[in-house]
Amino acid sequence: MAIHGGRRNSRMRKPKFAGKGRKRPIRHAAAEQVNLDAQEPIHLSGDPWQAPKVSVIVPVMNERRTLRRVIREAFRVHPHTEVIVVINGSTDGSLDIARRSGAKVLVYDRPLGHDVGRSIGAREAMGDILLFVDADMVIPAAKLRVFVDAVARGTDVALNDYSGPVDLPVVHGVVLAKHALNTLLGRPDLAGASMTAIPHAISRRALSAFGCSALSVPPLAHTMAIRHGLKVERVVPVNVGKLNPVRLKRERTNSLEPLIVGDHLEAIHWWLRHTDFRGGYEDGFRQRGMVR
Amino acid sequence: MKKKRRSTKRAVRPSARRRTVRPSRSRKLRPKTGASKRRKPAARTGTYADYAAGANDGTAWRGSQPGSPEMLREAVHESWNRRFRGAGGRRKADWRLTLQRGKHYAAGFMQASGVRAAICPVPLQMRASAVVYAGENETALFQTLSQLEVLPLHEIVIVAGQPTESLFALARGFGNAVVVVLPDRVDPDIGRALGAKLTGADTVLFVDGEQPVGADQLARFLWECDGKLDVVLNDLGSRMGTFRRRKAIERLHEFLNASLKREDLKINSLSVLPFALSRQALDSLGAGALSVPVKAHALAILKGLRVGTGGFVRTGTLPDYADSRWKKVAGDHAEAWREALGVRGNRMHFADSMRNRGILGEWVT
C-alpha cells in the first residue's frame, strides 16, 4: 500500500489521463515539458548582453517525425545555445513543431535545394561555434557536444569521423569522392570524413574564411577550409549510415550521388583555380620541353 | 501432439515440392551442357588442325631456306597471321583460345622445320612496336627485351639516358631494337613519350624496362589494341581487393575514372605500365601528352577514344602518400582534372539543378 501511494505522489499527472488510458496525452505532456526546458536558453540568447555560444543549424524539409527530438537534443548541447531551424518546402506541419520548440525559425515556401538551408542558417547564427545537424536524424546531445567541445578547444572544422562502408571492392560514389578529395588536398589522414556528412561543427573563424554561401556546397567549404590552412580534424564517429534507414529508400528512387560527386568536382575546380596548374604539387625533374 | 506433427509436415511440404521441381530444371539445362561437350572436341580438332597446319608450313619453310631463330620467328608470325585471317579471321575470337591455337601452330611449325625458338604468336592485322625506357638494371632490361623479342613486333624502341657501355651493347644485341641514347637521364615518362614519337607503328606497346613481364601477358595488349581498342590498360581493377586496403593513389585513379563517367575502368590508369596505344590514340593525343600519363588518360576518355583493358599484370609498388613519387602523381591528377574541368565544365556534367543559389547573394569564387 505504502509503495502504491508513493508512486501516485511522484506522478501527479497520471490520474488525469488515466481515463483515456493511452500513451498519447502523456507523450504530449512530455514534449511540453521539454519546451519549458528549452525556454531557458532562449531567454539567455535573447539577452542583448549575452550572445549565444553555440548555434545549432537544422535545415528541415518535411521531417515532422524526428524534428521535435532533434531540436530537443540540440538545445542540450550547451547552456548558451540557439537553435536555428530552416524550414524549406515543408508541408507536413514541421513548421508548427519548430515554432513550438523555442527555436529560431526561418521559413521558405519552396525547397531551397540540398544543403542551402545550412547557408541560410549560418547567416543568421550568432554563436562562436556553429553545429550542423539534419532534422531526420536524432543524435544524442552528448555526442553532439564532442564536436562543439573540439571547436572550443581550437579546432576550426570538427568532422564526423565516419567514412562510410569501405570494406567493399567497389564503394558508393560519394564515399569514393570524399576519400579522393581528401587525398588530393594532401589530407589522406581525414579518410572519408567530410563536411558533406553531419554532424560537424565549425568555428566563427572558419565561417568568415569561406563565407556562408560555400556551406551550400559542403565539399567546397571543406576544400576552402583546408586550403586556408584551418585546423580540420576528424573528431568522433557517428554512424549516420546506420542511423538513417530512410535515406536508403530515397537513394533507390532519387539518388543524390551525381549531385554530391558534382559538388566534389566543383571543389576541385575551386582548388585548382587557387593553386598552380598542378595543385601545388612539384613536377619532379620532367623535362617536358623534350617532347612536344 | 498430432497437431504439431501436422504443422511440421505442412511446413516441410513446399520445400519438398521445390526439390521435386529442381531435377526437371536441370534436365532442361542438360542439352546445353551437352552442346558445350560437343563443342569441345571440335575445338580440340581445331588446335590439332593448327598443329598440322604449322607442321605443313614448317616443312615448306625448311625446304626453302636454312633458318636462324630470328628468321623462324618472322616466318611463324607471318604464316600464322595469314592462316588465322584466312580461316575466317574471327575478330571477336576468345583471347585464350587464340593464343593457344597460335602456340599449337608454332609447335607444329618448329617440329617440322627442326629449328627451335621461344615464340609467342599473336595474329595481328597491323604493325606493332614496343617502347621501353631502360633503367639502370641491366638484368631486368635483358629479361624485358627477351620477352619482347618473341612477340610479332616490327621494332623495339629502347630509350636510354646516359647508358653504360654494357647496357648499350645489350640493347643493340636484339635484332629489331632501335636504341635511342640521350645525353642525360630523363624522367621515364618523358623517355617513353620520346620513344612513342620515334615509332610509326599502328600499335605501340609501352613496357617497363625495370619490371619484366611475360610475353603471353604482353601479347594480349597487342591483341586488344589491334583494331579493337585505342587505349589498352593494365587491368589492376580485376584484383583490387577492398577499398579500405587500397592505396591513396588508387583512390585518385578511381575517382578520376568515375568523374569521367567511366566507373567500369575502376582503378585502372594510363600511369600504370604496361599499356598499349593505337595509332589513332597517338595521333589524337600527341606523343607529348604521354609526358603526363594521367592527363593523357583523361584526355583519351574526353576525346572519346576506345579505352579498355588487356588483362592483369603485376606491377611494382605504386607510389603512396609520403613516398617521394607521390607529389608527381598527385600533381598529375591535378593536371588531369584541370583538363577535364576545362572540357566538361566546372562540375563535369554532374549538374546541380536543385539548389537555389540565387537566394544566397554573393557567392565566394
Please count the beta strands of chain A (DSSP E, at least 2 residues each).
7
Q: What class do helices, strands and sheet pairing of chain B give?
A: alpha/beta
Percent in helix of chain A: 40-55%
Domain module count of chain B:
2
Rg of chain B, nearest Å: 27 Å
Order of helices and strands of chain A: HHHEHEHEHEHEHEHHEHHH
Task: Give structural notes.
- The complex is a heterodimer of chains A (292) and B (365).
- Chain A is α/β, with parallel strands linked by helices.
- Helix content of chain A is 47%, strand content 13%.
- In chain A, strands 3-2-1-4-6-5-7 form a seven-stranded mixed β-sheet, sandwiched between helices.
- In chain A, β1, α4 (64-75) and β2 (81-88) form a beta-alpha-beta unit.
- In chain A, α4 runs parallel beside α5 (94-101), α8 (173-184) runs parallel beside α13 and α10 (218-227) packs parallel to α13.
- By secondary structure, chain B is of the alpha/beta class.
- Chain B has two domains: 47-113, no CATH class; 128-344, Spore Coat Polysaccharide Biosynthesis Protein SpsA, Chain A (Alpha-Beta Complex).
- In chain B, 52% of the residues lie in helices and 10% in strands.
- Chain B is built from eleven helices and seven strands.
- Chain B has helices at residues 2-64, 69-86, 95-113, 138-149, 165-172, 188-198, 215-225, 248-259, 279-285, 293-302, 326-344; strands at residues 128-134, 155-161, 177-182, 203-208, 231-233, 275-278, 307-309.
- In chain B, β1, α4 and β2 (155-161) form a beta-alpha-beta unit.
- In chain B, α8 (248-259) runs parallel beside α11.
- The longest helix of chain B is centred in the N-terminal third of the chain and has 63 residues, at 2-64.
- The radius of gyration of chain B is 27 Å and the shape is globular.
- At the A-B interface, α6, α8 and α13 of A face α6, α8 and α11 of B.
